[in-house]
Design brief:
It contains five helices and five strands. It has about 150 residues and is of the alpha+beta class. The protein has two domains: about 50 residues, no CATH class; about 80 residues, Arc Repressor Mutant, subunit A (Orthogonal Bundle), CATH 1.10.10. The protein has a three-stranded antiparallel beta sheet with strand order 3-5-4. A hairpin with a 2-residue loop joins strand 4 and strand 5. The N and C termini lie far apart (about 65 Å). The N terminus is likely disordered. It comes from Noviherbaspirillum suwonense. This is Transcriptional regulator, ArsR family. Pfam families: HTH_5. InterPro entries: ArsR-like_HTH (IPR011991), HTH_ArsR_DNA-bd_dom (IPR001845), Metal_resp_trans_reg (IPR051011), WH-like_DNA-bd_sf (IPR036388), WH_DNA-bd_sf (IPR036390).
């Protein structure tokens, strides 16, 4: 069994009246290499999955479509009207979302309805809503020096 030594440099600060004293400590930690390999492999897989999700979300049209679908299931014509994404871009982006298993479809007669299938995408969209879309969080974008 191999062990790896890792040195951590810890700085603690103690405040005294009119001066600050910095104390430096060195601490050695032993890490089992076998456990590190398993954790690293899991971390790499998680990073690959997160990266794939973020690549899909990085397209403005796909993000608009998914944001709209957080409100429920929509047919293609409703998505076009609500998001402003026009054909053939709409069909192309819905195909990407389907291929990446982000959305699921349901057919009713001639209409196809789309809804979010990815719980991970839904969780990220919730955070994005809180940070960028929630009332009071929206920031006016300046265009040519005016708001």
């Amino acid at each position: 069994m191999l062990h790896i030594k890792i040195k951590k440099h810890i700085i603690s600060t103690h405040k005294r009246p009119n001066r600050t004293v910095h104390l430096h400590h060195h601490e050695k930690t032993h890490v089992n290499q076998e456990n590190l390999s398993v954790d690293l492999a899991e971390l790499q897989n998680a990073a690959a999955s997160a990266s794939s999700l973020l690549k899909v979300l990085a397209n403005q049209d796909r993000l608009l479509l998914l944001c709209q679908m957080t409100q429920g299931e929509y047919c293609v014509s409703d998505l076009e009207q609500l998001t402003g994404v026009r054909q053939p871009t709409l069909s192309q982006q819905l195909t990407v979302l389907r291929d990446e298993s982000m959305v699921t479809t349901r057919r009713e007669g001639k209409q196809i309805f789309y809804s979010i299938a990815s719980k991970e995408a839904l969780a990220v969209l919730q955070v994005l809503y809180e940070q960028f879309c929630k009332p009071g969080k929206r920031k006016a974008k300046k265009v040519n020096g005016t708001v």
